[in-house]
Automatic annotation (TrEMBL):
This protein's name: Histamine N-methyltransferase
Keywords: Methyltransferase, S-adenosyl-L-methionine, Transferase
Subunit and partners: Monomer.
GO biological process, one term: methylation
């Protein structure tokens, strides 16, 4: 997978939240009428999208308490998440449980500590790229779902060098696992990235690689590698002389 090109939900965040809203809209579609919802974020990063989803859950189900397991191996990200929690109002109904570990470490930990506990909602947003075996990871986390729970997976949706929702769909179809599939369309004009010294191009490269001043600091061979990947037909196409980067995301809502 290319650097950090897919690292944030950027303009698609509202669509994710709308989708999430419709998934939790049905009173009984999550939680089955219980007074505590068990939620889990896997690879939550700094918790930005997690807290937005939890805020919507609050709006839809104002009297429900939430037990929120956070699985995140990065100390920095967990720190950011905790700071965000400490500065966000109205989170008293949520009990945060911090698990500084990878998804596979968490699997071992969970089987020892909580073998019977079931989850109402689990999300894996832009994280399956980082695990060795995405299918085994989906299988394990799906096995934690309550009978009316949901597993939300967001990944790039089309041909790419990393795992896509297409790969996960093939796996789910083979196993006969029910799911719903949505597309979040997004394209980005990255033409300026290919003009050396162009200010807009440099900012775009910073955004795509998630590295500040990438053009100034990256070694020449890395810069060339990134530009080659961006230009590759799997990542972009030429339209009226402009280079258009395909940044579409796929969303899968997997049933237990
Ligand atoms: C691209 S970020 C996505 C963050 C957040 N979900 C979002 O969409 O804004 C991927 C996150 O997955 C975490 N991660 C990396 N490897 C992981 C693993 N093996 N198990 C769980 N999380 C992992 C990273 O630390 C990072 O915070």
């Amino acid at each position: 997978m290319m650097g950090g090109a897919y690292h944030c939900l950027d303009v698609r965040r509202p669509s994710v939240l709308l989708l999430w809203q419709s998934e939790i809209g049905e009173k009984r579609s999550i939680g089955g009428g219980r007074s505590v919802f068990n939620v889990m974020g896997v690879g939550s990063g700094g918790g930005e999208i997690d807290l937005e989803m939890l805020a919507q859950l609050r709006l839809k189900h104002p009297h429900v308490k939430v037990d929120n397991e956070v699985v995140e191996p990065s100390v920095d990200m967990l720190h950011k998440y905790k700071v965000r929690v400490s500065t966000t109002p109205d989170l008293d109904h949520i009990n945060f449980k911090w698990n500084k570990m990878t998804a596979s470490e968490f699997e071992k930990h969970w089987q020892e500590k909580n073998p019977g506990k079931k989850m109402d909602f689990i999300h894996m947003i832009q994280m399956l790229y980082y695990v060795k075996d995405p299918e085994a990871t989906v299988t394990f986390f799906r096995s934690l779902l309550h009978k009316d729970g949901k597993l939300l997976i967001i990944l790039v949706s089309e041909i790419s060098q990393c795992v896509t929702t297409g790969d996960i769909k093939t796996f789910l179809d083979t196993e006969g696992i029910p799911y719903r599939n949505y597309e979040l369309l997004s394209q980005m004009d990255i033409t300026e990235c290919f003009t050396e010294g162009d200010q807009v191009g440099e900012l775009l490269l910073d955004f795509l690689t998630e590295v500040m001043e990438f053009s100034k600091n990256a070694p020449e061979d890395l810069k060339k590698g990134v530009l080659d990947i961006l230009r590759h037909p799997e990542c972009s196409k030429e339209v009226d002389g402009r280079i258009i980067f395909n940044n579409n995301l796929g969303v899968l809502v997997v049933e237990p």
